[in-house]
């Protein structure tokens, strides 16, 4: 197996420059226009042609042999930011009001461009597809890219995510299920409304909502099997217009995070049952709307073995970490893995001198020394997977 060298000092400096430029100019889901132009420009500088507007604002580029039937491995980086006002005080902090790279996607793009630079100069035993994906943060950009042919000819796919829960230099590789179903729901509660001084003349939607919020906590505590993790969170509540008015409507929105289909179905059914019960308890009417989210990320065992061996070769066996418990976070990389085998890993990027904000925090930042680690891992994994394609299961029939 050919072993790639680590990125040069010049390549590391360029990755840092790209990350900081993206961080300074973040863009939300499906609005990654300047981000896409920067990516296309950087690929052009490497002599790599790309296809733009894949899945609306995504980019796909290819390295190596393009003949039909050539073995192909894809590498993916997400590139959208979040609707968060940055509070890091960094010299390259966001200049776009209310928008921030608070999840490391700026670093992911820089890593994949760094991987492209490492792979460009060698003879590949196949094709490497570089997928720069929009709209990971809740909008499911992976699905649009798949529909637009991003996985055409691809037989395996790999990606990584920066994670400040792990030390710099650690790479987390785990086979099987590593993330959750991420579904959402909306509950509407309606009553006649009326004067606050005459509650007997009406039905109180806010009282009903309050009891429902409390009751929902009993689903996970008393209905879900304790060996299967689950979370039901009410994220917003809107109702009422004045202190002396009994509200005629309350709207609740929330999320359900589960790691098994059975637990997921139980939580949905229980939410529906409890919502409907309010009609008898509080003389209100209700509606329940369920919105299907991302499926869980399930790493293929064979692809994970390749990723683990590459990671150990780069950072050492002692810094190769497992993830014994799945995260209840979500990742739309799961849609790619429903089509082709692959593996999502995590790159440790903790730094004691940085802000202590977690992902999706206005104070989020990561140690930029993770950039060359991620770039080298992605490039080496693509090369190794091409050389060991026979160990991987075939893509699903649906995507063939």
TrEMBL record:
InterPro entries: Amidohydrolase (IPR017439), Bact_exopeptidase_dim_dom (IPR036264), Peptidase_M20 (IPR002933), Peptidase_M20_dimer (IPR011650). One of its GO terms (biological process) is diaminopimelate biosynthetic process. Mn(2+) binds at residues 103, 105, 137, 161, 360. NCBIfam families: amidohydrolases (TIGR01891). It comes from Thiovibrio frasassiensis. Its cofactor is Mn(2+). The keyword tRNA processing does not apply. This is Amidohydrolase. The Mn(2+) ion enhances activity. Keywords: Hydrolase, Manganese, Metal-binding. GO terms for molecular function: metal ion binding; N-acetyldiaminopimelate deacetylase activity. SUPFAM superfamilies: Bacterial exopeptidase dimerisation domain, Zn-dependent exopeptidases. It comes from the Bacteria. Pfam families: M20_dimer, Peptidase_M20. Residues 185-272 form the Peptidase M20 dimerisation domain.
């Amino acid at each position: 197996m050919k072993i790639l060298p680590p990125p040069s000092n010049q390549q590391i400096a360029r990755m840092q420059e790209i990350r900081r430029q993206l961080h300074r100019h973040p863009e939300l889901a499906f609005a990654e226009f300047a981000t896409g132009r920067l990516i296309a420009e950087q690929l052009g500088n490497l002599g790599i042609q790309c296809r733009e507007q894949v899945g609306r604002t995504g980019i796909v580029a290819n390295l190596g042999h393009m003949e039909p039937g050539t073995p192909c491995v894809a590498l993916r980086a997400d590139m959208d930011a979040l609707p968060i006002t940055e509070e890091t005080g960094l010299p390259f902090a966001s200049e776009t009001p209310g928008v921030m790279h608070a999840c490391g996607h700026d670093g992911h793009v820089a890593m994949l461009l760094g991987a492209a630079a490492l792979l460009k100069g060698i003879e590949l035993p196949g094709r490497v597809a570089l997928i720069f994906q929009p709209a990971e943060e809740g909008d499911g950009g992976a699905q649009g890219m798949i529909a637009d042919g991003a996985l055409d000819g691809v037989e395996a796919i790999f990606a990584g995510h920066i994670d400040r829960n792990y030390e710099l230099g650690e790479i987390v590789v785990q086979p099987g299920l590593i993330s959750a179903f991420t579904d959402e729901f909306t509950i509407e509660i309606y009553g006649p409304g009326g004067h606050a001084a005459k509650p007997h003349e009406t039905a109180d939607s806010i009282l009903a909502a309050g009891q429902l919020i409390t009751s929902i906590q009993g689903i996970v505590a008393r209905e879900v099997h304790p060996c299967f993790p689950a979370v039901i969170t009410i994220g917003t509540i809107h109702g009422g217009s004045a202190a002396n008015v009994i509200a005629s409507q309350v709207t609740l929105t929330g999320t359900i995070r589960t790691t098994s289909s059975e637990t997921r179905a139980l939580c949905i059914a229980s939410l529906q049952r409890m919502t409907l019960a309010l009609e008898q308890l509080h003389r209100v009417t209700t509606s329940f709307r369920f919105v299907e989210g991302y499926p869980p990320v399930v790493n293929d065992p064979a692809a994970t073995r390749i990723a683990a061996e590459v990671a150990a070769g780069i950072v050492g066996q002692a810094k190769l970490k497992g993830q014994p418990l799945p995260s209840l976070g979500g990742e739309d990389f799961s849609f790619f893995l429903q089509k082709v085998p692959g593996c999502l890993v995590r790159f440790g990027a903790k730094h004691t001198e940085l802000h202590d904000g977690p992902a999706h925090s206005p104070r989020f930042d990561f140690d930029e020394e993770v950039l060359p680690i991620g770039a080298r891992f992605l490039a080496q994994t693509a090369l190794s997977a091409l050389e060991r394609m026979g160990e991987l299961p075939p893509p699903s029939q649906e995507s063939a």
